[in-house]
Design goal:
Blueprint: H1 2-27, H2 34-53, H3 58-81, H4 91-100, H5 102-135, H6 138-151, H7 160-166, H8 170-195, H9 199-208, H10 212-247, H11 255-264, H12 268-296, H13 298-301
Helix pairs in contact: 1-2, 1-3, 2-3, 2-4, 4-12, 5-8, 5-10, 5-11, 6-8, 7-8, 8-10, 10-12, 11-12
């Protein structure tokens, strides 16, 4: 019975892919949808290639089946509904946008990632640096922690109207909003982690009589890294939410701007295409963060 289930489970994504390609081909309006259909087929076949490469992973079949299944249901919506929906355009129309707007997407992705990476770097440097300082100074910690616990739950986008008025341009305002939203979780994480610092390890550090820089670089920072990566993984979605919100304030590029600009014209084909690109970027960033974590915390995996 288990062998039968395994065969069905592994065969399911291929069946769904075939159904998806047939469904979209039947409904496509050729030659208008030729580019869109070819692009959609290429994207789905790329997913199929990834499945074949990672076929040893059991979860790969489930994830691929879900992706194919959702797109198949989406493609069948006009058939179920009886007509094509303005709010839910068929997949081949949306995939065509990836070709027609490729230059706009490339510019928007680079604009968003530049802002996000810069904000991450600033938030990490300030949060880790100040967190290490507060974590080892009890008096400073008692002053900072109550303030951090009050300000950290406040959504950074609330500051937007005031920040836009104070900052010299929209880019600086967006950078401040994203950085402030990431700074507090990093700061609190470092302080709380150092509060749980093993007393035996602390005694060993004092016996070795290391300098301040060596103690921070080789003892405190590695000790904080595992929990810090957990915090960053949870903050990725929040960072993109802040990024999109910040780009809506008046910037003329970025993924948030792309979605907002097209939604103002009720161009839902491009709006949904923007959603898909944002989701793909978030998935890639999460995957990249996991790879960095595996490299940085190699010592933890070996234990």
């Amino acid at each position: 019975m288990k062998k039968i289930f395994d065969r069905i489970y592994k065969l399911l994504p291929h069946v769904l892919l075939a159904g998806l390609l047939v469904s979209t081909a039947v409904q496509a309006q050729f030659p208008k949808d030729t580019v869109g259909y070819i692009t959609l087929a290429a994207l789905m076949l790329a997913v199929e290639a990834a499945l074949i490469i990672r076929r040893r992973k059991w979860s790969a079949y489930g994830i691929t089946s879900i992706v194919y299944g959702l797109v198949l249901i989406w493609s069948l919506y006009p058939v179920i509904n009886g007509r094509e929906s303005f709010l839910f355009p068929p997949p081949q129309r949306i995939s065509a946008i990836f070709v027609s707007d490729v230059l706009v997407f490339v510019k928007s992705i680079f604009s968003s990632l530049w802002l996000l990476v810069l904000s991450f770097v600033v938030a990490m440097v300030l949060g880790i640096g100040f967190g290490l300082l507060c974590g080892k100074n009890k008096r400073l910690q008692n002053v900072v922690m109550p303030i951090a616990r009050v300000l950290s739950p406040v959504p950074a986008l609330i500051y937007a109207p005031y920040v836009v008025a104070v900052m010299p341009n929209f880019t600086a305002a967006a950078l401040f909003i994203i950085t402030s939203g990431l700074f507090w979780p990093v700061l609190i994480n470092v302080i709380v982690t150092l509060q749980r610092f093993d007393p035996k390890l602390k005694d060993a550090t004092e016996v070795m009589d290391l300098g301040l820089f060596s103690t921070i670089a080789h003892i405190y920072l590695p000790y904080c890294m595992p929990s810090l990566f957990n915090t960053l993984a949870m903050q990725i979605s929040n960072a993109f939410l802040l990024l999109i919100g910040a780009e809506l304030m008046g910037m003329d590029s970025g993924l948030g701007w792309y979605v907002k600009y097209n939604s103002d014209f009720s161009d839902y084909v491009r709006v949904i295409a923007g959603f898909i690109v944002i989701g793909a970027i978030i998935a890639l960033v999460n995957s990249g963060l996991e790879r960095v974590r595996a490299k940085v915390l190699l010592w933890q995996q070996s234990n």
